[in-house]
């Protein structure tokens, strides 16, 4: 007898639900079959790219993979966030995007905090890393506000990292030193 794996739980923050992508979500994005709960400008190009890669990377649909960012107040999908598996040297890489119509509300920071805290509960993971283009200061600020620390710069990209002491509880900013 085979058992069905337990569904991946949503991650819930003050204003957001981070809901795992499904194959149906990816198919709808790729077919441009608009769901009624999508923000008017979802999906962005990055969401289409990720949806197209799930067949090559099925682990990205697992619990420590990619999630849709849902605004709790409107129940609208406003972006996506994800962890790129498998871990490299104990670190998972995180990427995110919020649609233009919903930027400037702190959603990226809130989702990044929650996803990083959750990622640090994964087996064999002791850090979460992310990259931001230096020409995108908003993305750099998101990572800083989410408790990530700059550790490297290569060409036009800054590397950021967070460890378990940096993120204490799901969805909360790190404690002030």
Would you write up a description of this structure?
This protein has 4 helices and 8 strands. By secondary structure, it is of the alpha+beta class. β5, α3 and β6 form a beta-alpha-beta unit. α1 packs across α2 (45-53). The radius of gyration is 16 Å and the shape is globular. The N and C termini lie far apart (52 Å).
Summed up, what is this model?
It contains four helices and eight strands, in the order E-E-H-H-E-E-E-H-E-H-E-E. By secondary structure, it is an alpha+beta fold.
Give descriptors for this structure.
177 residues; disordered C terminus; single chain; 8 strands; 30% strand; eight-stranded mixed β-sheet; alpha+beta; globular
**Uncertain runs:** 168-177
**Global geometry:** globular
Give the mean pLDDT. 90
Structural class comes to alpha+beta
Into which percent range does the helicity of residues fall? 10-25%
Total helix count?
Answer: 4
Strands, total number: 8
Gyration radius, in Å: 16 Å
Compute the separation of the termini in Å. 52 Å
Percent range for β-strand residues: 25-35%
Report strand order across the widest sheet. 1-2-3-4-5-6-8-7
């Amino acid at each position: 007898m085979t058992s069905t794996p337990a569904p991946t739980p949503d991650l819930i923050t003050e204003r957001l639900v981070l809901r795992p992508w499904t194959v149906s979500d990816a198919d709808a994005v790729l077919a441009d079959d608009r769901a009624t709960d999508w923000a008017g400008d979802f999906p962005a190009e990055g969401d289409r790219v990720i949806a197209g890669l799930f067949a090559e990377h099925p682990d990205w649909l697992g619990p420590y993979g990619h999630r849709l960012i849902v605004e709790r107040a409107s129940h609208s999908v406003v972006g996506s966030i994800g962890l790129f598996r498998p871990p490299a040297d104990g670190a998972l890489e995180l990427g995110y995007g919020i649609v233009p119509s919903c930027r400037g509300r702190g959603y990226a920071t809130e989702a990044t905090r929650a996803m990083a805290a959750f990622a640090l509960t994964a087996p064999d993971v002791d850090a979460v890393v992310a990259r931001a283009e230096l020409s995108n200061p908003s993305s750099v600020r998101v990572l800083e506000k989410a408790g990530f620390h700059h550790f490297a710069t290569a060409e036009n990209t800054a590397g950021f990292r967070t460890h378990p002491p940096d993120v204490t509880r799901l969805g909360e900013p790190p404690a002030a030193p």
